[in-house]
Design brief:
Elements: H1 3-8, H2 11-97, H3 102-121, E1 124-126, E2 139-145, E3 154-160, E4 163-165, E5 168-171, E6 173-178
Parallel strand pairs: 2-6
Antiparallel strand pairs: 1-4, 3-6, 4-5
Helix pairs in contact: 2-3
Length: 184
């Protein structure tokens, strides 16, 4: 209000004009406060989502790391099994030829024992197949025979041993299976 308006107005009119302007300022401040609260809430939600995404990423990376380590370990253990096979062949050859090979056989036996200890410590287990029913998840039939005195689909001989690592088959056992011909 200008000075002339104040002179021509009642004292009550002047007092009423000032609170009206103050109420507008309070309303504006409240509106700004509400907007600031909404923005803060949105920013907090974004923060929570970003934090959850980071936690998920960290967990995924840990899982991937564990899977890679397990895969690398399985690859190494599979290579060790080939060494074990060669040791077994050498032992079999030495035992069947018996000539002055006692020192060699003893050394190979100790090496095989040591290798077996390592494989056992690492969680590798031999698949026990001989004399049991054929299991295609753990065994690979390389030959079949027919012996009426042996139950149908029973493993009669293990040609190459198979191994598991934890719950996975590292290498299936190669076996000879007894099969009865179907009576038609």
């Amino acid at each position: 209000m200008t000075d002339q308006q104040i002179e021509g107005a009642d004292a009550g009119d002047v007092l009423d004009a000032e609170p009206a302007q103050g109420l507008d300022d309070v309303e504006t401040l409240r509106q700004q406060l509400d907007e600031a609260r909404q923005e803060a809430s949105q920013n907090y939600d974004k923060f929570l989502r970003a934090r959850a995404d980071m936690d998920n990423y960290r967990k995924r990376m840990e899982r991937t790391s564990i899977e890679r380590a397990t895969s690398a370990r399985k690859e190494i253990l599979t290579k060790l099994l080939a060494v074990k096979d060669n040791l077994q062949r050498a032992l079999h050859y030495g035992e069947s030829h018996g000539d002055n090979t006692e020192g060699i056989i003893e050394g190979v036996k100790l090496t095989e024992y040591q290798l077996n200890q390592i494989l056992t410590q690492e969680g590798v287990e031999r698949i026990d197949a001989e004399g049991k029913p054929f299991d295609p998840t753990d065994e690979e039939a390389v030959q079949t025979i027919h012996d009426p005195g042996v139950p149908d689909h029973q493993v009669v001989q293990v040609v190459r041993e198979g191994y598991t690592y934890k719950d996975d088959v590292l290498r299936p056992a190669q076996v000879i299976v007894n099969v009865h011909p179907d009576a038609e």
